[in-house]
Design goal:
The chain has 3 helices and 13 strands, in the order ααβββββββββαββββ. By secondary structure, the chain is of the alpha+beta class. It folds into 2 domains: 51 residues; 166 residues, no CATH class. The strands form 2 sheets. Strands 1, 2, 5, 6, 8, 9 and 10 form a 7-stranded antiparallel beta sheet that branches. Strands 3, 4, 7, 11, 12 and 13 form a 6-stranded antiparallel beta sheet that branches.
Amino acid sequence: MFGLGATVAGVGIGALIMGTAGPWGWILSIAGVLICGGAVKLHFAQKERSEAKPNIELVEIKGAKWSPHESDEKFYFAQIWFRNSPITPGHESVARDVTAQATLTNASEGRTIVFTALWAITSASDHMEPVNTKSAIDILPNGTYAKLNLVLKYVGDRSAYAYTAENFAGDQSGKNLHYSIPPGEYAVRLLLRGIGVSKEFRFVLNNPGARHHTFTIDAVSPEL
């Protein structure tokens, strides 16, 4: 309606000028049509780009038990699954080099833990495996899940630990005290950033300590 109305208006103005200014009216009329047509094309091009932008959505929070390095010691780990669901997928829909910065805050203890969580690279859409990880990945708009390792906790341990490269670099078992998550409730702020994407998700993590082998993570809001 905007383009049609503007075009008609342009012709009307041109006709009015034609009546008073001769052939210059037609020239101005054609110019008005071209300008209005260009505005309409720009509007639709902007709309297409907006609908093609990456749109990262929370799918689910999953947990499983894992035995690292062929040892008898086992830990529980949490993965958060995301997918990229743009309105209209296209070449600009790929979220590139996406990292996940996690901030865990225990207000009662005055403790804050900040780390970059690790993406798990798996071959099957429903497969959970915490190894073969990367700190940054591309998230394609093809329905494939992006799986983020967030926290691990060994069976019988009091503390959980951040699933980050620095944790495993300091201790191969992933028990670096600098990245320990003692018992308590933590507000979790997860910021996904990359080329074409910047989105925040919030969760609540509860570590009950040694009396329970695992921990819980619940979504507060898919995005804020």
